[in-house]
Amino acid sequence: MMAKILVIGASRGIGKAVSEEAAARGHEVRAMSRSGAVTRRRDDRIEGFSGNALKAADMERALEGIDTVVQALGVEASLKMITEPVTLFSEATRVLLPAMEKTGVGRLVAVTGFGAGDCASSVNLLQRLPFRALLGRAYDDKTIQETLIEGSDLDWLIVRPGVLTNGPKSNCYRVLSEPAEWRNGIVSRADVADFIVSQLDNDRLGRKKPVIIRLPL
Predict the structure, then answer these.
(1) How is residue 118 annotated by DSSP?
(2) pLDDT higher than threshold 90 for residue 152
(3) Residue 143 gets which letter from DSSP?
């Protein structure tokens, strides 16, 4: 089943990788970012869309004709991320969910990360202190993001990658679906994109929250 996908946060990272992987598999992609810039492809399956994920009017325009949304927002690593509150993930989700309801789009894949939501307790003791010091504020906001999504009526999938790399697609990553399996690890953005795009053909996303890793830490 070919889908029309809106990727939010498509200019870099997992969002860019999802856009390119989905287009390569024949899906139509609307790649949303502030700049609207996209990598040119001969098949023209990626449509650049300039918009602000925090503005309802932009989101409603971006959702026109869309089947599935992939929310892949990120914040740049900086001192500000460590010392000041992070609110992008929850604020953007508070804009996105009513916009999806208004436009009748019912499927959402959201990328958060290992350590968000109810898998926070799976961060081992050796990793917990540096994790909280460096990423605690961002992951507190990702936890709010997950809670908002879980409380919606959407058909959703929350994807929690481990430590991300820019390595190639390996085709041998692990999908840890059960809480007892959850653990941190290393995984490439290309592998995460492969997993996400592989789910787009499913009739139901199934309201699941898998952790994605290739090599455990």
Answers:
(1) G
(2) yes
(3) H
Q: Yes or no: say if 142 and 161 are a contact pair by the CB < 8 Å rule.
A: no
163, β-bridge pairs: 186
CA pair distance 133, 117, nearest whole angstrom: 17
How far apart (Å, rounded) are the C-alpha atoms in residues 168 and 189?
Answer: 8
Across the strands, what pairs with 155? 107
Helix locations, 29-154, DSSP H: 56-62, 79-83, 88-103, 125-150
Q: How large is the greatest C-alpha to C-alpha distance in the chain, in angstroms?
A: 49
Nearest CA to 182 out of 108, 126, 111, 113 is that of 113
Q: Kindly report, residue by residue over 40-58, the tens digit of the pLDDT.
A: 665 689 999 999 999 999 9
171: tokens are 């085709």
Indicate whether 205 pLDDT > 80.
yes
Say what the pTM is. 0.94
**Rounded to whole angstroms, what are the CA distances from 176 to 91, 156, 208, 214?**
28, 17, 11, 10
